[in-house]
Design brief:
331 residues; Rossmann fold; four-stranded antiparallel β-sheet; disordered C terminus; binds adenosine-5'-triphosphate; ATP-binding; ABC_transporter-like_CS; transport; ABC_transporter-like_ATP-bd
Amino acid sequence: MDGITATTDGGEATIEVRGLRKRFGSVTAVDGLSFTVEPGQVTGFVGPNGAGKSTTMRIVLGLDSADEGTALIGGRPYRALRTPLLEVGSLLDAAAVHPGRRGRDHLLWMAHSHRLPVRRVDEVLDLVGLGQAARRRAGGYSLGMRQRLGIAAALLGDPPVLLFDEPVNGLDPEGIRWIRGFLRSLAAEGRAVLVSSHLMSELEDTADHLVVVGRGRVIADTSVRELLAAASGDRVEVRTAERTTAMTVLAGAGASVAATGRDTLTVSRLDAERVVELLGGAGVAFSGVAAHRATLEEAYMELTRDDVEFAAEHPVSGHPVADHSVEEGKR
Ligand SMILES: Nc1ncnc2c1ncn2[C@@H]1O[C@H](COP(=O)(O)OP(=O)(O)OP(=O)(O)O)[C@@H](O)[C@H]1O
């Protein structure tokens, strides 16, 4: 890819959202959102269904207008960009291509509208690995092929800012792996990449930074590393067949101990060295002591517990229970 620069028409390649608010009738879709997407990294935009991710992206891309606040690409609103295709690329809905149109023709038409050379169309088709399939009609494409065509379209103008709305939704494992690697490589080239998902696990190996949203608000704006460290806490995981004795010994030394598996204890308030020392001293056999490492999914569940739009009522306590397994609920 030639000529990628970390600037747009208006300035540095960033997306800056400030105090964004949008209502649809009685529904507040976006409720005062502020965040920045920096160049050179993948920023995950995560939140349950209905959290306001798509609405925010549509406003950034000038497809919807905000009631309040600003959304800037390289310092300018989308509508003020002189050559939008060269400054920002996006994939919002892979199904948006006319089924009767050949993939390559779709891109040629877009390239033509921006006076881009035909050569660029073939370059992006190669980049996304569509090759010969590009001469077939889009109506016969698999979901994965449509996603690739959508990504090719986003890259046509070689833009330094990219937005992808749920790009791996519904893809097979191979398609998911390909998109993850591809997003990372786009960020490594210095681009600002914003990618939304309602499943944290989809971003586990992709995002460097996360903007977590719930009910139209930012819940967390953090690097993945910091989030995992905070969710992991100072806990230690112990594997032992002598669970009851181990619990007594550790609790006696001031630890708070929870049985978290058949052979597993999670210990707080003691570090790993002290745990080893105490168990060894008491003659308790154990096969492993390690710092507890939370998964991104755990961290996310913790963060969004109270922020899902469609919470199921808990049958016993009456408290809303976060429904994080929302795949089936997708539009
Ligand atoms: N055009 C619209 N008219 C009315 N309500 C809308 C419209 N677009 C979005 N909404 C509502 O605004 C809220 C936020 O929707 P949005 O699609 O932005 O969320 P999301 O985080 O992208 O969710 P998903 O993961 O389901 O795509 C939802 O309650 C949704 O029903």
